[in-house]
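Exercise: predict the fold of this chain.
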Amino acid sequence: MKKLYSYLFISLLFIGSNFSQTRYIDQVFSAVDIDQNVLYSTNISVLTGAPAAQGLPMEVYTPTGDTETSRPLIIHMHTGTFLPIMYNGNPTGMRQDFATTTICEDYAKRGYVVANIEYRLGWNPTLPTQTERAASLMIAVYRAIQDCKAAVRYFRKDFETNGNSYGIDTSRIILSGQGSGGWIALGYATVNKIDDIQLPKFLDLTDPLNPVPLVDTAVLGDWDGYGGNPALNMENNVGYSNDVHMVLSMGGGMGDLSWLEAGDVPMAAVHCPTDPTAIYSTGDVSVPQIGIVTTDISGSYDVMVAANAFGNNDAISAGVYNDPYTTAAQAASQSLVGFVDQSGTTISNAVDHVFPYMTGNPFESAPWDFWDSTTLVNVIAPAVGLTAADAQGVHASGLATNPNMGIGKCFAYIDSTLGYFCPRIVNALLLPGNNVGLQETTLNTKVSIFPNPAGNNVTITSDNKTITGIEIYSTTGKLVSTKNGLNTSLYQFNQLKLSTGMYIVNVHFKEGTITEKLIIE
């Protein structure tokens, strides 16, 4: 099995310029512009003990020389286990990490706008009880979800009040995260009611007759970042939508699989089945010498099994994938059947929309990471108040699970990750180059939808064929409107009453189907 995975990985190193270049799938720009230290919100940090206001900056990457003014936005979140770099025991953990900035630049060269955001850190893994540790970590994830929502609202506010200065399409916003950043993205997309944060494992049951929520919305605010104690939560970019349209997770986990429901946004993932923290299936999060932090965190395998079963990934599955990354992912997933992950779970079936990375290194979790030991010792350690000896220890700790760490390996896994994700973004969000459904040239007819963007009334026409039926789906694959038994070249929907966003329209003819997009404002 190890030889097979090594072959799959090595084969991806040679994927290059023999393929035609398509925006949003391939790097079609040679350079990017970076807007540095853009302040998207301010909120209360507890990292140094006493609560204090902290500005939350981001870098915004755009393709140099691009003339497109309506581009998908990717909001990307770095790794770090919700503690500062090196204090987390790792040589990575900030938005300036080499892999993080490389990923953002790579996406921007493919035509996306990318925001590399800072989010609040801070929790205490040394608390004496498992309940206290779980509460501390869950609150850290919760704060970060609030911050990410403030970032989404920042861009919608800019779109509506500042002339869309970054040239984004607000109906195509994607969350992407590495490690703990993936936890944030998955939680953002699925935590949407009080029951989600008051499961038994998120309650203090010291007094069984009077359970106390570990995440108290009266103190911390709700999952959108509104309310709570103003001394602990500041509302940011109020009044704008939090909606996102897709999630991409690199080794992330979901706080509880029950959060995931039918109608949630499409998701795709890459994940090392050897990851000891974000378990590939479902398991406990543990810290050596301390013990269990929290229980039943679900990784990419179980998340994708559930998302696929709910139909949330139907919009991704509708695409046709001929790329070598998908071929490699399918072979890796199939070959993983029978593997026992870090929770002791035996993988019983291959699953779509997750690319399992088996590197041959025990306990590896982030093969895309790269760090420079000299920079760690001479620059980062002094900046965070640690010694050269501390940095050397962290460097050795990183090499223990990533012993062949190097810049070539970093680039190869980032290329594989984005090569796997980008065709799924294109198909899920119906970007140019998507191959969902039959094309108009195949049926020798043209479908028009007007107005588009639309409000409550939409007219759909065909120039020379008879429409037999129409279906309108949300980008999560939910059927929101349908009309069958038609025999016309023009049909009007009245009073659709759809939420703002992008929708997929299937127009049926006896000869086949044409798929178009519809924007509701």
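Check your answer against the key: The chain has three domains: 2-370+413-428, 371-404, 440-520.
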